[in-house]
Amino acid sequence: MEMMQLVKLWALTLCLVVVLPLAQATDVSYCDKKTEYGVKVSGVEITPYPVARGQPATFSIAATTGEPITGGKLVIEVSYFGWHIHSETHDLCTETSCPVSEGDFVVSHSQVLPGFTPPGSYSLKMKMYNTSNKELTCIGFDFSIGFAASVSES
Ligand SMILES: *[C@@H]1O[C@H](CO)[C@@H](O)[C@H](O)[C@H]1NC(C)=O
Where is the signal peptide (predicted)? Predict the structure, then answer.
């Protein structure tokens, strides 16, 4: 890993650990357990936790790639108690610094969940593609949305 990347990764980790004590590490699973994905994901941290409605939530995904990634996209799908409610596509390079060299990298995705989002149990599925539209990884994890923001909102 290059020095700058190491510093960035370390700074991000420090930031998550020290500044954001409400961050939560979450269990991640691959969409297809039999597939050997080119990008391995070791964990996800969600800040704040539980996610508050109408406020940005940050999903920091720690990953490792076996080959350099020049660019690509992220497809994110959110489900509520198993119901697909939201999907969006992002340029991979807006969520991590491109090009990604072989080794560890972090994808940081921030998103504001709509104010009407009911509290409860959600799951998020994230697929990563490279510029040749080849699926590099597909992961899923659960998170919950609290009642917190509804107080200040209304
Ligand atoms: C995308 O990933 C596939 C599989 O790892 C690889 O063969 C291909 O060269 C990659 N494309 C680019 C543009 O990196």
Answer: 1-25
117 in contact with ligand 1, CB cutoff 6 A = no
**Architecture of the domain spanning 22-148:** Sandwich (2.60)
Sorted by where each begins, the domain ranges of the chain are: 22-148
Taking the C-alpha atoms of residue 90 and residue 148, their distance in angstroms, rounded to an integer, is 28
Q: What is the pTM of this model?
A: 0.79
What is the 134 CA–ligand 1 centroid distance (Å)? 6
Looking at residue 113, what is its pLDDT?
76
Q: Where are the alpha helices (DSSP H) in the chain?
A: 3-14, 92-95, 149-153
| Cα 105 from Cα 99, distance rounded (Å) | 11
Of the residues 132, 133, 135, which should be mutated to test ligand 1's pocket, given the most ligand atoms within 8 Å of the CB? Answer: 132
Cross-strand partners of 53? none
